[in-house]
C-alpha cells in the first residue's frame, strides 16, 4: 500500500493561487533555459521514499483544509542554494482536488496513510456550482453540506 505526504501550503490563498504560482515557477525555469519541473525542496529526505513513489501524492493544506493533491514522481537528493544537503520532491503538474478535510497547523511534512487520505473530489462533493468554495468549506466543516 502506498503512503502519502501532507504539507501546509504556506502563503497560498486558494487552489487557483497555487495553480498560478506553479505556472509562474515553470515559466521562470523555461526562461532560465532549464527543463520546467515542479519541485518542492525540503531539508530532510523521507525515509519511506520507496512507498511514496509507489503511487503516493503530496496533499496540500490550504487555509486549514486539505484541498488538493499532486502525485509524487521522483525524490532527488540535492544541494540547496545554501550548499546544504536537501531533498527535492518532484511533482506531477496535474492538481487533483480532494474532498475538503479540516487540518490543524503543523510544521514540515507528515506521512499520511493511504486509507486516511481524503478521497478525490467528485462533482457532487464540491457542492452546487453557485456556492463559492470558501463558503462550501465552512458549510462542510459545520456538517451542513
Compact summary:
It is built from four helices and seven strands. With 145 residues, it is α+β, with helices and mostly antiparallel strands.
Description of the molecule:
The protein is an alpha+beta fold and 145 residues long. It has one domain (3-141). The radius of gyration is 16 Å and the shape is globular. Strands 1, 2, 3, 4, 5, 6 and 7 form a seven-stranded mixed beta sheet that branches. The chain contains four helices and seven strands, in the order E-H-E-H-E-E-E-E-E-H-H.
Draw up the topology in text.
Blueprint: E1 3-8, H1 15-31, E2 38-42, H2 49-52, E3 57-62, E4 65-79, E5 85-91, E6 96-102, E7 109-113, H3 123-126, H4 133-141
Parallel strand pairs: 1-3
Antiparallel strand pairs: 1-7, 2-5, 3-4, 4-5, 4-6
Amino acid at each position: 500500500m502506498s503512503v502519502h505526504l501532507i504539507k501546509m501550503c504556506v502563503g497560498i490563498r486558494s487552489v487557483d493561487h497555487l495553480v498560478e504560482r506553479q505556472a509562474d515557477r515553470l515559466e521562470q525555469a523555461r526562461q532560465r533555459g532549464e527543463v520546467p519541473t515542479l519541485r518542492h525542496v525540503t531539508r530532510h529526505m523521507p525515509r519511506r521514499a520507496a512507498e511514496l513513489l509507489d503511487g503516493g501524492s503530496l496533499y496540500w493544506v490550504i487555509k486549514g483544509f486539505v484541498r488538493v493533491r499532486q502525485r509524487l514522481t521522483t525524490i532527488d537528493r540535492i544541494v540547496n542554494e545554501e550548499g546544504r544537503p536537501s531533498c527535492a520532491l518532484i511533482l506531477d503538474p496535474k492538481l487533483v482536488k480532494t474532498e475538503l478535510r479540516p487540518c490543524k497547523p503543523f510544521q514540515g511534512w507528515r506521512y499520511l496513510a493511504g486509507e486516511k487520505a481524503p478521497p478525490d473530489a467528485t462533482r457532487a462533493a464540491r457542492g452546487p456550482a453557485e456556492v463559492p468554495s470558501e463558503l462550501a468549506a465552512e458549510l462542510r466543516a459545520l456538517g451542513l453540506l
